[in-house]
Amino acid sequence: MQLMSIGDFARAAGLSPKALRIYDDLDLLRPAEVDERTGYRYYAPDQLEPARLIAALRRVGMPLERIRTALELPPVAVAAEVTSFWRQTEADVRSRRVQVSALVADLRSKESIMTTTRTPRTRTAHVIRQGARDEQLDAVHIGDALWAVADGFGGAPSVAEDLVRLLAAEPEPVSAERWDELAAECAGGIGDEERGSTFTAIALKGDVATIAHLGDSRAWLRRDGVLRQLTTDHSEVSVLVEDGRLSEEEARLHPRRAVLNRALAAGLPSAPDVVGVTVQRGDRLVLSTDGVHALFSASDFAALLDAEDPDAAVAAVERAVADAGEPDNHTIVVVDIHD
Q1: Which residues in 157-177 are b (16+ Cβ under 10 Å) and which e?
Q2: What pTM was estimated for this model as a whole?
Q3: 101-144: per-residue pLDDT in tens?
């Protein structure tokens, strides 16, 4: 039997060599042979089908132990196993929905406490660039107490620009309750199913920054030299990582890593996440589209934002994106909180 190198096997299976190494480390798919001298992995042609099955089951988030079980079953039994797994997943979601509804009702019944009604002074800088794309679909809003980035997709006219126009006409600051209405108004005007947009916004009132978020643009908080991501990407892969069903490395290699499951788009849920964070003097709030943060590790991005003032931080990020070839539209906003 002619064995295949890991590269040839990966191409035939529609996977990456790194994914195959992960499956080996997880004891899901061992190579047929490993060269003792070089450590090179070799696979047999009859391992192609199991490799493809593992990839498919990982994409839907099936736990490792159930995948191991499925690999020993005939196709009809695997289909039954997948059906059973998905029924339980849907049941779990229904149960959690009831719990979440009760929790939200309880929390909304409690009075929000703002330690100060005076909105602090801020210093802001931003940049928006087209990069190597044929057209600019990103958009940005810079207000006195409201800042937003949006990343359009599907071509012009940009849905991101539509959102920014709505925000420009909106009294500041936007209340937490108003964000659902704004998103619905913007999404309701999209007739082309190919077009859409992400957005992430910060509305500052008193010492509370309200963050509205939809898609895979991001909000960050840098405090005491530590950068923390405040939003969670609304993508298929992000959900699997958060649930512990995919590793960070698997997610980075996932073929559907850029597929959104929430956005301002026809056919997708468009209600944004809305959360609040208390800010203090010396905090740095950051907004970025994925044309920025997709290029850097978390530690590298944090280092770029270590500059003393917002203008220098934005300039450092802009240079780094250019050095990386600026393959996409990219936007960043930096807001420093003063007294």
Answers
A1: ebbbbbbbebbeebeebbebe
A2: 0.71
A3: 777 677 666 655 555 567 899 999 999 999 999 999 999 999 99
Distance CA 15, CA 26 (A): 16
CA distance 187 to 198: 11
- Who's near 237: CB < 8 A, 6+ residues apart? 246, 251, 254, 256, 257, 259
3-class DSSP assignment, residue 205: strand
Give the domains, in start order, of the chain with CATH numbers. 4-72 (1.10.1660.10), 122-337 (3.60.40.10)
Residue 55 is classified by DSSP as H
Nearest one of 287, 278, 117 to 198, comparing CA atoms: 287
d(C-alpha 165, C-alpha 159), whole Å: 10
Q: Which stretch of DSSP H or E encloses residue 288?
A: strand 284-288
**Type of residue found at 107:** L
Q: Answer for the pair 320, 167: CB distance below 8 angstroms, yes or no.
A: no
Q: Which residue has the tokens 């934005």?
A: 314
Three-state DSSP state, 275: strand
Q: How many C-beta neighbours within 10 Å does residue 238 have?
A: 18
Query: For tokens 């939200």, what's the residue?
Result: 104
3-state secondary structure 81-130: HHHHHHHHHHHHHHHHHHHHHHHHHHHHCCCCCCCCCCCCCEEEEEEEEC
